[in-house]
Amino acid sequence: MSRVPWLRGNCRACGLAVLVISSVASAADTKAKQKQEDRLQNAGTVMDEILNIPDNIPHELLAKAKCVVVLPSVVKAAFIVGGTYGRGAMVCRNGNDFTGTWGTPAMYVLEGGSFGFQIGGEATDFVLLIMNERGASSLLHSKVKLGGDLSVAAGPVGRSAEANTDAYLRSEVLTYSRSRGLFACVSLEGASVRPDNEGDQALYGRKVSASEIVLGPAQAMPISAHKLIASLEKASPRLKKS
Q1: Buried b (16+ CB within 10 A) or exposed e, 204-215
Q2: Could you tell me if 75 and 85 are in contact, meaning their C-beta atoms sit under 8 angstroms apart?
Q3: Is residue 133 in some structural domain?
Q4: Domain extent at residue 220
Q5: For residue 145, is it within any domain?
Q6: Number of domain units in the chain
Q7: In this structure, is residue 25 part of a structural domain?
Q8: pTM listed for this prediction
Q9: pLDDT tens figures, 68-99
Q10: Residue 19: inside a domain, yes or no?
């Protein structure tokens, strides 16, 4: 009988410990989800601003793109010699052949060497157009190296480039950048792009792959993605077949 109060005390302590651990875990999950929500919101702002630049991504190219990857505030660690690292989102057109309306975003990571055109830790926004089904499928299932696994080119800029878009359609990925308010084509050859599985889990609240998010079953659209999707829908509501 003398042990009962001790056992009760231990049970209370264990219960309190479980409660504290659960609270900490819940707070960590909330923080992780908010980080992904912020990235989606920033991606929407970047896409909206870029599409409103007079000499922006040629409409003909965006209309033929299967997916779009938006990577806001990618950081270059050093001048000429350094690393590049950034996180953002990929949005694809719905359907197994990527021909429908713009769908639910999956989170993505860009990793690679320095490209030598910026100084210090300056942040740059990147937009990647995925131009064919092979490129889209590759990105959904694995880490890909641009210029190795997928052909890549710096995309043309402005309305005057539209007449020459057929030459660019031979590339599976077209890349653009914006830094210090300047929008330009840029080569990301040598960089790698991969699904951000941890980011997707934090955003959607469970383990889910990029291919599941994009190809179905349908996930609930995060509110933070609405601006990104709305910008793409306004600029290119339907795929234009080559």
Answers
A1: beeebebebbbb
A2: yes
A3: yes
A4: 49-235
A5: yes
A6: 1
A7: no
A8: 0.83
A9: 999 998 866 544 445 667 899 999 999 889 99
A10: no
